[in-house]
Amino acid sequence: MPTKGMGRPQRKEMRIVVIGGGTGLSVLLRGLKYEPVHITAIVTVADDGGSSGRLRAEMDMPPPGDIRNVLTALADTEPLMEKVMQYRFSAGTGLAGHNLGNLLLAAMNEITGDFVTAVKALSGVLAVRGDVLPASTQSIQLVAEMTDGALVAGESQIPLAGKKIKRVFLEPSDAAPLNEALLAIADADAILIGPGSLYTSIIPNLLVRGLFSAVSRSTAPKIYICNVMTQPGETDGFAASHHVQAMYQHVGEAFLDTIIVNSAKLPLHVLEKYAEKGAKPVRCDLKQLRQLGLQIVAKPLVTFEDGYLRHDAHAVSRQVVSLLKRRRRS
Hints:
One of its GO terms (biological process) is regulation of cell shape. By secondary structure, the chain is an alpha/beta fold. The protein contains 13 helices and 12 strands.
């Protein structure tokens, strides 16, 4: 697959669009916000579990959880404010289980009458570095078709089904993206996909009608940041190339230029901890990735925090910026 150029005059500040959701996206953004780039995060809105799912059902609004995490990750705030945004009530009739940041977004949604305006308003309060946009403002349900033909509805239920996923799709299938998201993609100097849950955080964004078309039309390099570990119920046994192929199968074309994948060997005690939950390291299958025509960046890119493996946000961000700078010079 040919590598595409920038196709536009160079700017001092590169504009990067990041597409995804879940914890992985938030971790990446915590590092990327310190780089000399302008960030637009396009975030999945298919969540139906926990506090987000309750607010979605009761207030007829997009689920705020992934948006909240991204806002917090990009915020230029005191540590106490981050704790406030992430605080989860443990007691109280109707309050138990709710996250305060989710409630703030729900309140802003009620006050402004529009979810996108609510996100922008809270972005201003938190001094967010960049723009945060939902992939769509419509109520979207994610459905998975399993290899045995069974259908499982709901983002939170899919990994619990204990079956192999054949494909996922959206209901309604014609959910429309924000025009602002399309404009950001058209103006991007780079498009980052991931990291995050493949079938429940990344692919749902690519299925929003018009969003992937904009990605496909863009001449900006498209970089996939591969997960470090497999996810039980989603990507059991997947190597890096399987993640790429799953995306290609869902959108109907090969669109990535580069994959960033962890090459660090993980300590035995970490492997054992994850093995208990059915997770294993995502294998960097170089031969298969090369056959897919991808530029491969394989580096030690992980850190171990609070008992969990995470991408080293600063190391990954430096790799992304280094790639783009080299591309500009070539």
